[in-house]
Amino acid sequence: MARVRDERLCWLAVRDQLDRRSRRRSLLGRLVGNFTPTGRGLGVDLTRGSVKGRMMRYSFAVEDVAQRLTPEERQVLRSTGQVPDWFLNAVERRFHELRRRPRRDATP
Questions:
Q1: I want to staple 43 with a disulfide (CB 3.0 to 4.6 A). Which of 31, 37, 50, 98 is the partner?
Q2: What is the pTM (predicted TM-score) of this model?
Q3: What is the pLDDT of residues 17-34, one digit of tens each?
């Protein structure tokens, strides 16, 4: 049986929670969403791309934070599938750090 990386186990442990967080909209997003017809062919769902981008940043954040796990925390992760209590807060902080970074465009 192939050994699954600890980073992947962390992602599987928190993915559903992060997916819910990534779908939350700001006040402005909710206001614009209320006036934008979507889902029935009447308009374009502008949130889909932003959710995908947020989930991608969350995945990078989980990868980075998973590097901080101690051997004991890794053992608990492997045996129970649970991350430590501090993990999600650290992922959220790293997510916001990644979000503040300037994007590198593929075109000059």
A1: 37
A2: 0.70
A3: 998 887 766 666 555 555
How many Å apart are CA 12 and CA 21, to the nearest integer?
15
**Cα 12 to Cα 103: distance, rounded to the nearest angstrom:** 27
Q: Six-digit token pair at 94?
A: 């790293």
Distance of CA 16 to the CA centre of its chain: 9
- Secondary structure (3-state) at 73: helix
User: Tell me, what's the pLDDT at 32?
Assistant: 59
The three state secondary structure string of 22-46 is HCCCCHHHHHHHHHCCCCCCCCCCC
Which sequence spans correspond to the domains of the chain?
6-100
Handedness of CA 8, 11, 13, 19 (dihedral sign): negative
Contact 78, 9 (CB under 8 A): yes
Q: From CA 5, how far away is CA 2, in angstroms rounded?
A: 9
Q: Tell me the one-letter amino acid at 102.
A: P
